[in-house]
């Protein structure tokens, strides 16, 4: 609100997790590591120009690129830890007892990625993220975006329910995005009817 009221269109040095939450399209629409990192930075810097805000967006976008191109999870984990310095070797059971609300990239992006790494399906990734508590909706958004790329989509039954709740124009936007991203109805997870 303060940013909007300033009457200027400059970023405000934020490292909040909003930059990471909104970046998933970059991981689908760019095709090389260099392109993904550059576009994720551009996406973040509009509002979240603190280095941690940029890093969080880059980590999520790169995760999606790696996931959708078939990179094995352990290789993804190693790449993300080396590139961004996140500790992704922790386990959900270690994080849960003391985890609280943290809206920073550095305090929620690694946890969302760990929720994905410990999941065997899109739904399990989202449930893992929510089970941590804290900024659960944002963490679920991040974990779900990476899981969608890795597992081949959102399960058909869940997507069908979502479509019932969205206005028709929003469903059309998703369809246009699927086409632009080269996703062939990218909403039915592998093995899902």
**Overall pLDDT confidence:** 88
The tally of beta strands, per DSSP, is: 0
Name the helix and strand elements from N-terminus to C-terminus, one letter apiece.
Answer: HHHHHHHHHHHH
- Going by helix content, strand content and strand pairing, the class is mainly alpha
Determine Rg (CA atoms, Å). Answer: 16 Å
N/C terminus separation: 44 Å
What would you note in describing this structure?
- The protein has 193 residues and is mostly helical.
- It is 64% helix and 0% strand.
- It contains 12 helices and no strands.
- It starts with a helix and ends in a 13-residue tail after the last helix.
- Residues 188-193 have low confidence and may be disordered.
How would you briefly describe this protein structure?
The chain has 193 residues and is mostly helical. It is built from 12 helices and no strands.
Element layout with pairings:
Blueprint: H1 2-5, H2 18-21, H3 24-29, H4 33-45, H5 51-68, H6 73-84, H7 92-95, H8 105-117, H9 122-131, H10 136-151, H11 156-165, H12 168-180
Helix pairs in contact: 4-5, 5-6, 5-8, 5-10, 8-9, 8-10, 9-10
Which keywords apply here?
193 residues; mainly alpha; globular; disordered C terminus
């Amino acid at each position: 609100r303060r940013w909007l009221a300033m009457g200027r269109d400059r970023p405000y040095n934020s490292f909040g997790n909003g930059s990471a939450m909104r970046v998933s399209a970059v991981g689908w629409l760019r095709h090389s590591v260099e392109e993904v990192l550059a576009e994720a930075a551009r996406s973040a810097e509009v509002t979240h120009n603190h280095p941690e805000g940029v890093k969080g967006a880059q980590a999520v976008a790169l995760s999606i690129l790696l996931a959708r191109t078939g990179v094995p999870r352990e290789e993804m984990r190693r790449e993300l830890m080396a590139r961004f310095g996140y500790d992704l070797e922790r386990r959900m059971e270690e994080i849960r007892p003391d985890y609280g609300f943290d809206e920073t990239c550095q305090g929620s992006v690694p946890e969302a990625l760990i929720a994905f790494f410990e999941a065997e399906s899109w739904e399990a990734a989202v449930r893992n993220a929510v089970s941590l508590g804290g900024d659960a909706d944002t963490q679920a958004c991040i974990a779900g975006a990476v899981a969608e790329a890795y597992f081949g989509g959102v399960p058909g039954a869940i997507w069908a329910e979502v479509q019932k709740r969205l206005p028709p124009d929003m469903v059309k936007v998703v369809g246009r995005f699927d086409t632009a991203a080269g996703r062939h109805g990218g909403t039915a997870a592998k093995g899902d009817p």
